[in-house]
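Lecture notes, unit on protein representations.

Consider one protein chain, 112 amino acids long.
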Amino acid sequence: MNTPNKPDDDARTTVIIAGRVYAPAEDVETFVAEARATSYPLAAANPGNVMISFSVEDAATGTVTVLEQWASQEALDKHVATPEITALLTKWGPRLRNEVRRFHADETDPLA
């Protein structure tokens, strides 16, 4: 898991991206490597990114767990609009079954 930007104690995560994508089993390791190589450095450079993670959950079925936290929809939009992310989505999008969802959270539970 990659945590490029440590949030302030009072920072609120407003956008959470969570779920699974399914890649062809023979390509899942390549997809995750490319997704990490592309997304992690861009997210680290984006002060609105709190956390981003892509991990192979089950290589035999091509299952990849995706988890991201963003301080705002604007920060996420900026990330997705970069040429590198656009190229990654254009390349892999047609080959993936996407079950990732976006959630909005007003604040995090300080007791969690």
